[in-house]
What we know:
The protein is built from 17 helices and 2 strands. It is mainly α. It has one domain (2-204, 216-392). Strands 1-2 form a two-stranded antiparallel ribbon. Strand 1 and strand 2 (249-253) form a beta hairpin.
Amino acid sequence: MRARLILWAAFAIVHLFVAWLGALEPNQPMGDVYFVYEPWSTAALKGAGIVGITETWVYPHLALAPMILAHAFAWIGNYIIGWAVLVTLCNAVGFWVLVGDGRSRSRRAAAGFWLAFVLAVGPVGMYRIDAITVPLAIAALLWLVRRPMLSAAMLTAGAWIKIWPAALVATAFVAMRRRWDIVAGALVTTAVVVAVVLVSGGAPHLLGFVTEQTGRGLQIEAPLATPYLWGAAAGLPGWSLYYDQEILTFQVSGPGVDVVSAVLTPVLALLAAGVALLGAAKVRRGASFARLMPPLALALVLVLIVVNKVGSPQFHVWLIAPIAFWLVVDRRRAFPLAALALLSAALTHLLYPIVYWQLLSAEPLGVAVLTARNVVLVALLTWTLVRLARVPVVPRAAAASPARPARDTEPAS
């Protein structure tokens, strides 16, 4: 009971502090909330147009739901406060599912990691739509074994808010034996969302969140943009940063940047497929769910972050769910990767919003911080892939036994 009270007190302190940091720190870490979320949701409530329905939108369709819901709490002060309250409430639900009765040391460790990560990554982790998907993903992973169809439905709903939870759906399909439950949950949720969009007249914009991404350039925070940033910092002719008025992001220019940007998406798809195939091979050779699921989930999520032409700082919160789940299942093996993820989160916070202006000016300090962060990310991906490759499998003699294969098991506590 005492440990649970301490965790909940820490939860309240961390969320209040990070919410306050959003107003204190430079470079508008809350900017997306009042520059885009509030106008989009206000227009929808007033019947002035619904993004994703009456016009093509950069986000999947369900992303508008929490933006609208935040208005229910705006009476407390304003829309920004309403958004912070909504994120905190969503996190509280996920935290309650994770902590439980507070007796499990592994769950307490995972909860502590979550709070440490929220603090380390700073306000960008709260004041972005990605924050809504984190507690949804954590609860879904914890319920995956007992309620696979519900978990798949939750993860798919998260993917219709921000696409990254689709990696967890794919992981569950590969690692679990109740695959058709995963498929059913994902298909039913997708069918409901698509039906609502079609009935609402949004058929021309159904896949807008996909087509809007195809023409993007290489965003400055993307790991593969790092050489171009150093070129700009060195003043090389043709190497520079610019602001894309259509996508509303800072991107890089330089020799071959269009080719790099064009090939990154297919390379990402190929690498993700390769990781999934490695996981499938492990399953066929008898790897247990508890040993395979955590590194496979983290590896797929890291591929989405590292081999991405966008690379926004809020992408870092995607790491919380797979690492928290790994800590619940096997905290000893997960701890070193959790520590490295916290370092990456802290560097991301230092980068944005604290030294972001130095990055936009291509000053060595800003570029160096980003480079250090990207090196940590690549190291984390490499380490996770090594862990995945080393997941033990059933020896051939045991595989030849007539005994039934091991079933999916509950996360250890």
